[in-house]
Amino acid sequence: MRDLLVQVADAAASYLEGLDARGVAPGAEALERLSELNVPLPEEPASAEAVLETLDRVGSPATVATAGGRFFGFVLGGCLPAALAANWLAGAWDQCAGLFVATPIATTLEEVSLRWLLDVLRLPSECGGAFVTGATMANFTALAAARHAVLEQAGWDVEAEGLMGAPPLAVVVSEDAHPSVIKALGLLGLGRQRAIRVPVDDQGRMRVDAFPSLRGPAIVCIQAGNVNSGAFDPAAEICAVAHQSGAWVHIDGAFGLWAAASPGRAHLVAGAAEADSWATDAHKWLNVPYDSGLAFVRNARHLNRAMSLAAAYLPQGEHREPSQYVPELSRRARGVEIWAALRSLGRAGLADLIERTCRHAQRFAEGLSAAGYEILNEVVLNQVLVAFGDAATTRRVVERIQRDGVCWCGETTWRGRVAMRISVSSWATTGEDVERSLRSMLEAANAAGLKPRAG
Ligand SMILES: *Cc1c(COP(=O)(O)O)cnc(C)c1O
């Protein structure tokens, strides 16, 4: 066992050290070699060493270098050293994180991390929390608590009776709600298409002046951090209006909620603590390994009622039993890495991670704008949208950037314009990574035959 783990640690370290010298996207040859894996299940066992040798030889080159400093696609984030190492140790522990008796350590680390998270995210300290797979499941989990609470208020026990015959329940989302919120509504029987969709402004923020008047059970979903622009719905105003009618306010803050951890950006989430539930990711901006998301619910009882389960063989001690707050029973000990990330960063390191990545985004916007390209969003956070001209030209530039391999950015459509989307979410991105990537972007734009506009 020891030899194997040392061999793997060595291979992993070499992999990470090699990222700087390789293209961010895997090369054609690496992708072709994947066919080596496409064989029938062998009859005979193989040694663990041989299995790992194949994984590293065929697998490592076929990865996308998201662990490096120059991947700016989607909103992915990297993996902090302490979080990666904690993930390995937790793998060795092999703890089932559903029950205190099965894992006092994982349960304790969740409890401590939950307190720390509520602190740095400036959320009410009494919140219940769920350590889930990502923001999609965090939205689902928090909205299940919301569904429980608003129907209970209307005299209906949704866990017992389901939704057939339940009082009508209004759901409000913005035109720019993340698709995972819509999916969660579908999974909860609230319908992907039934929600009232509130128009947004030019940055993708929900328009308070267009907010519907609500009566009866209602759930309002807003967001902290638009997945394209990084913009924030006006939480304080919407919470005030929604709470007047007794509606539940849920915030999807998959990455944007982390603005609260940086004194320089915390103003963006002003009023967010007034909501009733929140969803965020740890695997994005906190830079822990996949899969790791978090749901917080102000009144922990609602979360517990939506997620509880009981059986004679499942002990209910005096401790917080993790499985009473999440959709799963057995699951991996995600709190270990979250604890390690927060402990290694400290409050100051986390603030610096958020602030630094935002500054890198600002630098991209300045560099591209100075070269004459159009920045389509107000760069308030870590997201930049740039157009290199018309749709076809922008697409050509994005393809070229991806092919050149210095960095990787994706494409999106913003207010009808095709744009390249830059998201800076990794601790590993340095100022030099930003300058190298910027040069590559400008070269690609030049190669596409673009003449930058003056100014
Ligand atoms: C990424 C994201 C999600 C979904 O998160 P997963 O972790 O991929 O499930 C939801 N909402 C927003 C705003 C996001 O950026």
Molecular structure report:
The protein is α/β, with parallel strands linked by helices and about 450 residues long. It has two domains: about 70 residues; about 260 residues, Type I PLP-dependent aspartate aminotransferase-like (Major domain) (Aspartate Aminotransferase, domain 2). Helix content is about 40%, strand content about 10%. Strands 1-7-6-5-4-2-3 form a seven-stranded mixed sheet, with helices on both faces. A four-stranded antiparallel sheet has the order 8-9-11-10. A hairpin with a 7-residue loop joins strand 8 and strand 9. The longest helix has about 35 residues. The chain starts with a helix and ends in an 8-residue tail after the last helix. The model has no long low-confidence stretch (mean pLDDT about 95). Bound molecules: pyridoxal-5'-phosphate (PLP). The site of pyridoxal-5'-phosphate has 14 residues, from helix 6.
The CATH level-2 architecture of the largest domain is identified as 3-Layer(aba) Sandwich
CATH homology-level superfamily of the largest domain: Type I PLP-dependent aspartate aminotransferase-like (Major domain)
Number of domains: 2
C-alpha Rg (nearest Å):
23 Å
Low-confidence stretches: none
